[in-house]
Specification:
Elements: H1 5-13, H2 24-28, H3 36-46, H4 55-75, H5 79-82, H6 103-115
Helix pairs in contact: 1-4, 3-4
Length: 120
Protein backbone atom coordinates (compact mmCIF):
# COMPACT_ATOMS: atom_id res chain seq x y z
CA UNK A 1 0.00 0.00 0.00
CA UNK A 2 1.24 3.48 -0.72
CA UNK A 3 -0.33 6.83 0.02
CA UNK A 4 -1.20 9.45 -2.53
CA UNK A 5 1.29 12.30 -2.70
CA UNK A 6 -1.39 14.89 -1.87
CA UNK A 7 -2.26 12.96 1.29
CA UNK A 8 1.37 12.96 2.42
CA UNK A 9 1.61 16.66 1.53
CA UNK A 10 -1.38 17.35 3.80
CA UNK A 11 0.33 15.45 6.63
CA UNK A 12 3.41 17.64 6.24
CA UNK A 13 1.41 20.87 6.05
CA UNK A 14 -1.21 20.16 8.75
CA UNK A 15 -1.34 22.92 11.38
CA UNK A 16 -0.76 22.21 15.05
CA UNK A 17 -4.17 21.48 16.53
CA UNK A 18 -3.37 19.85 19.88
CA UNK A 19 -0.54 18.28 21.83
CA UNK A 20 0.82 15.41 19.75
CA UNK A 21 -1.21 16.50 16.75
CA UNK A 22 1.09 18.38 14.41
CA UNK A 23 2.07 18.48 10.77
CA UNK A 24 5.52 17.10 10.02
CA UNK A 25 6.85 20.44 8.78
CA UNK A 26 6.02 22.02 12.15
CA UNK A 27 7.87 19.21 13.92
CA UNK A 28 10.95 19.41 11.68
CA UNK A 29 11.34 23.19 11.59
CA UNK A 30 14.25 24.45 13.70
CA UNK A 31 15.59 20.96 14.47
CA UNK A 32 19.05 19.54 13.73
CA UNK A 33 18.58 17.77 10.36
CA UNK A 34 21.58 15.51 11.04
CA UNK A 35 19.87 13.97 14.08
CA UNK A 36 18.00 11.50 11.88
CA UNK A 37 17.17 8.98 14.60
CA UNK A 38 16.05 11.69 17.03
CA UNK A 39 13.86 13.33 14.41
CA UNK A 40 12.24 10.02 13.49
CA UNK A 41 11.37 9.50 17.16
CA UNK A 42 10.03 13.07 17.38
CA UNK A 43 7.84 12.63 14.30
CA UNK A 44 6.57 9.26 15.48
CA UNK A 45 5.79 10.45 19.01
CA UNK A 46 4.06 13.70 18.04
CA UNK A 47 1.81 12.10 15.42
CA UNK A 48 0.49 9.22 17.48
CA UNK A 49 -3.02 10.67 17.45
CA UNK A 50 -3.10 10.10 13.68
CA UNK A 51 -2.51 6.36 14.05
CA UNK A 52 0.45 4.07 13.55
CA UNK A 53 -0.23 2.82 10.03
CA UNK A 54 -0.88 4.04 6.57
CA UNK A 55 -0.40 7.58 5.35
CA UNK A 56 1.28 8.99 8.46
CA UNK A 57 3.99 6.33 8.48
CA UNK A 58 4.43 6.75 4.71
CA UNK A 59 4.91 10.51 5.17
CA UNK A 60 7.35 9.96 8.06
CA UNK A 61 9.25 7.50 5.86
CA UNK A 62 9.58 10.13 3.15
CA UNK A 63 11.03 12.58 5.65
CA UNK A 64 13.33 9.89 7.03
CA UNK A 65 14.71 9.04 3.58
CA UNK A 66 15.33 12.71 2.83
CA UNK A 67 17.06 13.25 6.18
CA UNK A 68 19.37 10.25 5.68
CA UNK A 69 20.26 11.59 2.24
CA UNK A 70 20.93 15.05 3.66
CA UNK A 71 23.08 13.60 6.45
CA UNK A 72 25.11 11.61 3.94
CA UNK A 73 25.69 14.66 1.77
CA UNK A 74 26.64 16.82 4.77
CA UNK A 75 29.16 14.25 6.01
CA UNK A 76 30.39 13.28 2.55
CA UNK A 77 29.51 9.63 3.09
CA UNK A 78 27.13 7.20 1.41
CA UNK A 79 24.04 6.37 3.44
CA UNK A 80 24.87 2.65 3.60
CA UNK A 81 28.08 3.60 5.43
CA UNK A 82 26.17 5.76 7.92
CA UNK A 83 23.89 2.79 8.59
CA UNK A 84 26.69 0.35 9.36
CA UNK A 85 28.39 -0.38 6.03
CA UNK A 86 26.18 -3.38 5.27
CA UNK A 87 27.46 -3.76 1.70
CA UNK A 88 27.64 -7.05 -0.11
CA UNK A 89 30.08 -7.96 -2.85
CA UNK A 90 27.28 -9.74 -4.67
CA UNK A 91 23.63 -10.55 -4.30
CA UNK A 92 21.75 -13.50 -5.71
CA UNK A 93 19.24 -12.48 -8.35
CA UNK A 94 15.96 -14.29 -8.74
CA UNK A 95 13.22 -14.49 -11.32
CA UNK A 96 9.76 -13.20 -10.59
CA UNK A 97 7.46 -13.81 -13.52
CA UNK A 98 3.74 -14.09 -13.97
CA UNK A 99 2.45 -17.20 -15.69
CA UNK A 100 2.21 -17.10 -19.45
CA UNK A 101 -1.06 -17.38 -21.35
CA UNK A 102 -0.44 -21.13 -21.82
CA UNK A 103 1.69 -23.83 -20.20
CA UNK A 104 4.03 -23.63 -23.21
CA UNK A 105 4.48 -19.87 -22.81
CA UNK A 106 5.12 -20.32 -19.08
CA UNK A 107 7.80 -22.91 -19.91
CA UNK A 108 9.39 -20.51 -22.39
CA UNK A 109 9.53 -17.78 -19.71
CA UNK A 110 11.19 -20.23 -17.32
CA UNK A 111 13.78 -21.23 -19.95
CA UNK A 112 14.55 -17.55 -20.61
CA UNK A 113 15.12 -16.99 -16.88
CA UNK A 114 17.47 -19.98 -16.68
CA UNK A 115 19.34 -18.75 -19.77
CA UNK A 116 19.87 -15.44 -17.95
CA UNK A 117 21.45 -17.37 -15.06
CA UNK A 118 18.53 -16.91 -12.69
CA UNK A 119 17.68 -19.73 -10.29
CA UNK A 120 14.92 -20.63 -7.91
Amino acid sequence: MSSQSYVCKAIFEAPRSAERRHGLTYLLRGQDPLDVEGLWNRLYYHTNRYGRRGAVIHAISGADLALWDLRGKALGKPVYELMGDGRRASIRAYASYLFGASPQETGQLARQAVDLGLTQ
